[in-house]
Amino acid sequence: MASSSAPKVPVYSVNDLKSTTDDALVPYLCNLPQPYTFTQDHSKSNVRFILGYSAVAIAAFTFYADRKLGWEATTSPWIIAAVFSYFVLNSVLTYWVWAVEAGEVFRGKRKSGETISIQSFAKKHSPLYKLRIVYTSPSNKVLQEKEIETPFTKWFSAEGFFHPEPLRSWLATEVEVLRLAAKETERKTGGVGSVVGVQDSKNRK
C-alpha cells in the first residue's frame, strides 16, 4: 500500500526520488522515542534564506528604480552599490550552499547533547542513494562516522510510490543510535509499532 504522506514520483527522476527521500528523514528523526528524539537545527538553512531573500529584495528594488525612476536613476552610486551587493550576496549564497551546507539535509540534537549530521548525495542516472552520517557527543567527539548507500528501489515501488518503513529499517541497521531507538520502539509497542518510534506516554499528557 502506498504511503499517504508522500506523492507518487517519476521513478526515472533521480532528483524527485532524492528530494522525497530527504524530506522523509525529518519526521523520522524528530519523532523517535525518548530519549533518542532529535530536535532539528535550522541555523544553516536560516542563513541560506536570509542571503537568498536579501538578494531578491535588492533585485526587486533595482527593478523598481529602473521602471519608475528611469535609466538615469540606475546610474546613481546607490543603485550601483545595490547591484554590487546583489552579486556579492549571490556569490556568498553559492559558497554557503556548496561549501558550508554541502548536501546536508538534516542536523539535529538530542536533549542529552549528542548531535547528528546527515548529508545526502545522488548522481544523475544512478539508482543509488548515498548518505554521510556523523554522530557526535556533547563534547564534539565523533561517536560514529559512516557513509552508506543503497538503491532507491528499497523504498520506492515500481510505480513510484514511497514506502517509509524500508528506509527507516535501513537506517536503523546502519546507524547505532537509530538501532537503539528502533529497539526502544519495539519495547514500548510490544513489537507492533512503526520503526519511526513513539513518544513517551508522559509527553502526550
Automatic annotation (TrEMBL):
<protein>
    <recommendedName>
        <fullName>Signal peptidase complex subunit 2</fullName>
    </recommendedName>
</protein>
<comment type="similarity">
    <text>Belongs to the SPCS2 family.</text>
</comment>
<keyword id="KW-0812">Transmembrane</keyword>
<dbReference type="Pfam" id="PF06703">
    <property type="entry name" value="SPC25"/>
</dbReference>
<comment type="function">
    <text>Component of the signal peptidase complex (SPC) which catalyzes the cleavage of N-terminal signal sequences from nascent proteins as they are translocated into the lumen of the endoplasmic reticulum. Enhances the enzymatic activity of SPC and facilitates the interactions between different components of the translocation site.</text>
</comment>
<dbReference type="GO" id="GO:0005787">
    <property type="term" value="C:signal peptidase complex"/>
</dbReference>
<keyword id="KW-1133">Transmembrane helix</keyword>
<feature type="transmembrane region" description="Helical">
    <location>
        <begin position="47"/>
        <end position="65"/>
    </location>
</feature>
<dbReference type="GO" id="GO:0006465">
    <property type="term" value="P:signal peptide processing"/>
</dbReference>
<dbReference type="InterPro" id="IPR009582">
    <property type="entry name" value="Spc2/SPCS2"/>
</dbReference>
<keyword id="KW-0256">Endoplasmic reticulum</keyword>
<feature type="transmembrane region" description="Helical">
    <location>
        <begin position="77"/>
        <end position="100"/>
    </location>
</feature>
<dbReference type="GO" id="GO:0045047">
    <property type="term" value="P:protein targeting to ER"/>
</dbReference>
<keyword id="KW-0472">Membrane</keyword>
